[in-house]
Amino acid sequence: MKIAGLKNSFTSRFAFILLLGLFLLTNLSCGLEVYILMPEPISTITQKPDYSNTDDTGEKYFEFVTNESADEYESLGDFKFRGTEIYYRIYGSTSTLDTQVNTLVSYATDSTKSASSYDKLISYGYKALASSNYDDEPLIKASSDSTDQRVYIRLTDYYNQSEYSARITVDGDYLGGSSSVTVPLRNGSDGYTFNFGRSGTYDKAPLSGDSDVSYSSSANGNWYVAMFAVGLGRDTTFTSYHSNIEYLGSVYINANEENN
Predict the structure, then answer these.
(1) By CB neighbour count within 10 A (0-12 exposed, 13-18 middle, 19+ buried), where does 203 fall?
(2) DSSP strand E in the chain: where?
(3) Which residues pair with 150 in a beta bridge?
(4) Of 27, 60, 133, 184, which residue has the fewest beta carbons closer than 10 angstroms?
(5) Stretch 103-131: mean pLDDT
(6) DSSP assignment of 188-226, as one string?
(7) Which residue, among 142, 68, 42, 103, has the nearest Cα to 226 in the 3D structure?
(8) How many angstroms separate the CA atoms of 37 and 124, rounded?
(9) Do 230 and 120 form a contact (C-beta atoms < 8 A)?
(10) Residue 23 confidence (pLDDT) above 60
(11) Structure pTM?
(12) Which pLDDT score is estimated for 189?
């Protein structure tokens, strides 16, 4: 009886160890989450506007070079870089803008928080920038030959001067090779522009309750737009990934004036 008991005990332990091993093997080989660290989204920022500069012409635009030729992408195998998305938010208060932007920048530059910088950006209500004559995402599609691209964004029109017109260009061309100007638009299906002081059908000043606005009753027509860039990618299973965020700057828009 003792020998039989020992055999049963040994068999039970062996079966338990075997099942545990199979369980661990299955979970390690199939259920382990793979974390892909994407390179920073921007190679160089050549023009970083600040809302404190009220010059309506020369400094009121964003310009940067994407980071698509980074050596880090070669080590990611079949991982595909999809392009660069631009996120914005409209503020009626510079103090709210400063507080949120400073927090986001601190997340982006902190090695322990940078992985959650995108989630923090979304939690503040930042929206993806849209464009006229272009309906694809991300806004800045990856180049076909993995080369960096120069992006120019001006949100508003200054009189009828083409040099200071609202537009988005990539290496000097409109988005998607469009033959018509690609004008920055607010997120949503309404197609509203950032010409807050104009009276066109799609020119509307921000309102309380707009999803892309941090409203302030004391704004009195003074609005400020901050923007960030985020790189997007996906792996062979079509799981989406995003990079750390990068601050592109901010501009002042006066809704009491037609030209900004």
Answers:
(1) middle
(2) 42-47, 62-66, 80-91, 127-128, 130-131, 140-141, 150-154, 167-170, 173-174, 184-185, 213-214, 222-234, 240-254
(3) 65
(4) 27
(5) 97
(6) SSS---S-TT--STT-----TT-TTEE--TT-TTEEEEE
(7) 103
(8) 23
(9) no
(10) no
(11) 0.86
(12) 81
